[in-house]
Prior knowledge:
It is a single chain. By secondary structure, the protein is of the alpha/beta class. α2 (18-24) packs across α6 (172-194). The chain has a single domain (7-202), classed as Glucose Oxidase, domain 1. Helix content is 33%, strand content 28%. α4 links the parallel β3 and β4. It contains seven helices and ten strands. The radius of gyration is 18 Å and the shape is elongated. Strands 1, 2, 3, 4, 5, 6, 9 and 10 form an eight-stranded mixed sheet that branches. Strands 7-8 form a two-stranded antiparallel ribbon.
Amino acid sequence: MNEPIDEPRRAILRRLGAATIYEAQGQVGAMDSGIKSLDPSSFLAGRALTVDVPPGDNLFIHHAVAAARPGDVLVIDAKGYREAGAWGDVLTLAARCAGVAGLVIDGGVRDVDSIVAMGFPVFCRAVSIKGTTKNQAGEVGGQISCGGTPVRPGDIVVGDRDGVVVILGDRLTEAIDAAVERERKEDGIRAALESGALTLDLLGLR
């Protein structure tokens, strides 16, 4: 059963960070490095509302915003298409009004300054001034691939300056516990380094 992402858990996820979560869950769930934040200081965490659209068309992105619930993160497979801005300032405002927590799109966006000014977290593959069509069918709520990683509706998506990681929808507590333990071990390594130890010894690399 999917667990809620309340504010305390969101704060923990932000402190831990996407990279630590990825490592702690066995180095799985990371989207490829081409998916980057428009604003490096932004952070997102929420449950995925998945969207599948044809390259260069954003009709079903509008459908997804209409279907979104507060706290959702829109995760869009736009087929990696870089030569159109399938998301812009109008959709950003609509999403904010719907309580959407952020966007991850394997494709392009535009109106960057306006999006950043609105404080809306967007992670994308490209920025393009070109427009899209709005006449091709897509799907909202199916399993997709985004940034080379499978995403199912209800999976947890965490994004920050390091990248985006996906946690299986029913493993939030498990992922947090593992990441907290990894953080604890790394704190021990840092303390040992400050006392003169070498990474070769601490990590068994001799």
